[in-house]
Specification:
globular; 4-stranded antiparallel beta sheet; alpha/beta; about 15% strand; binds pyridoxal-5'-phosphate; 7-stranded mixed beta sheet
Length: about 400
């Protein structure tokens, strides 16, 4: 790719490209290609291998057949905004006005991109925890802002108050929090959220939360940061249907915040995708209104898969760090005589027939992330059993 000059296809915005240099191809694309090339079990990328609830599928089909196939309204269809508001009240006790405080987006990814582009000026700083989901770093860079990271350290991926305070400067505008957290499976505890909230209030920082795994919690409880004192009106809460309903390809998400923040995010969002996926918006609304039993059974099933894979990884010799939520469990590879997670994951498909993701790609502090690897357990039981058998053979 050319950064300047007159060659055909030359990139005309060298500043943007420069900011994104180093991001390269995502690790998920590289590892998924390896899985295909080697016929390995793909426990790398975070998508389930079975569809979600029948009611949700039927709602999408019904919407298509009913002719809901044109551009939906800019803020999202009214039934989905209402269902999001109901869901926030039902599960988390958060009250949002569906007309002024809810915005539908093309997945949480677009919600995060539009929010960061709306809130950040060139030169602003964003505090986030590492390992961080890769799109945050890219969006912060696209906004011309800088990230300052606070490292979460195993075994419990905790952070120190001093490290958080040290990351805040007079330029800090935004703090991004992902809980339940990808890739570690950490569910931030109330005491940790209280520290984060007090820092946001003290320094007048807007919090942006990524809660796409809000219903994938097995130990402890999910506590939205917006529920803490002083946080409701300074938090942009983002989630989506992809993980909760096992439909990651539908890319239907939402943003909840006070009206001024929603207006700012909507202004940017309209020039990203404008709108998207009308039938899937109807389906997400149906999903959010499913009875409690759906959400409970879903989490119980994933918890048993978490146990199956975590146990298998421990039997294979890895140091396994506890995962309380998400699809993911992380391990330290050093007991197997390896130290470089990237190298380990690049050779694992050939050696062991399994694909995993090196979490070092989500760290600025490369030494902290080097020996850590993420495995995904949101697959069918027989697939996980096969993967465990293969990994145990590798250890022998
Ligand atoms: C932490 C986190 N945020 C956002 C996303 C993407 O969400 P969506 O598909 O709704 O854009 C993912 C998907 O893996 C994720 O892990």
């Amino acid at each position: 790719m050319t950064l300047s000059g007159d060659a055909p296809g030359a990139v005309r915005n060298p500043y943007l490209v420069e900011r994104l240099q180093g991001f390269g191809t995502t690790i998920f694309a590289e590892m998924s290609a390896l899985a295909v090339a080697t016929g390995s079990i793909n426990l790398g990328q975070g998508y389930p291998d079975a569809d979600g609830p029948r009611e949700v599928v039927d709602a999408a089909i019904a919407a298509i057949r009913a002719g809901d196939n044109q551009y939906p309204p800019g803020p999202g269809i009214a039934p989905l905004r209402a269902a999001v508001a109901e869901h926030q009240a039902r599960f988390w006790g958060l009250v949002f006005d569906p007309d002024t405080e809810v915005l539908v987006t093309a997945g949480a990814t677009e919600g995060m991109a539009a929010t960061l582009l709306a809130l950040l000026e060139v030169g602003d700083e964003v505090v986030t925890f590492e390992p961080y989901y890769d799109s945050y770093a890219a969006c912060i860079a696209m906004a011309g802002a800088q990230r300052r990271v606070v490292t979460l350290r195993p075994p419990d991926y905790s952070f120190t108050v001093d490290a958080l305070r040290a990351a805040v400067t007079p330029r800090t505008r935004v703090l991004v929090l992902n809980s339940p957290h990808n890739p570690t499976g950490k569910v931030f505890a109330r005491a940790e959220l209280e520290v984060i909230a007090s820092v946001c209030v003290e320094h007048d920082i807007t919090a942006v939360t990524d809660e796409v795994y809000e219903h994938l919690v097995y130990d402890g409880e999910h506590i939205p940061l917006a529920t803490l004192p002083g946080m409701r009106d300074r938090t942009v809460t983002i989630s989506s249907a992809g993980k909760t309903f096992s439909m990651t390809g539908w890319k239907t998400g939402w943003v909840c915040a006070q009206p001024d923040l929603i207006e700012a995010v909507r202004t940017v969002k309209q020039f990203l995708t404008y709108v998207h996926g009308a039938p899937f918006q109807h389906a997400a609304a149906a999903g959010l209104r499913l009875p409690d039993a759906y959400f409970e059974d879903f989490a119980a099933d994933l918890a048993s898969k978490r146990d199956l894979l975590s146990g298998g990884l421990a039997d294979a010799g890895f140091t396994v760090y506890p995962s309380s939520g998400t699809y993911f469990v992380t391990v330290d590879i050093r007991p197997l005589g390896a130290t470089d997670g990237l190298e380990f994951c690049r050779s694992l498909p050939e050696r062991g027939g399994v694909v995993a993701v090196p979490t070092v790609v989500f760290y600025d502090d490369v030494a902290a992330g080097a020996p850590l690897v993420r495995f995904m357990f949101g697959k069918r039981r027989e697939v996980l059993e096969d993967a465990v058998t293969r990994l145990k053979a590798l250890a022998r």
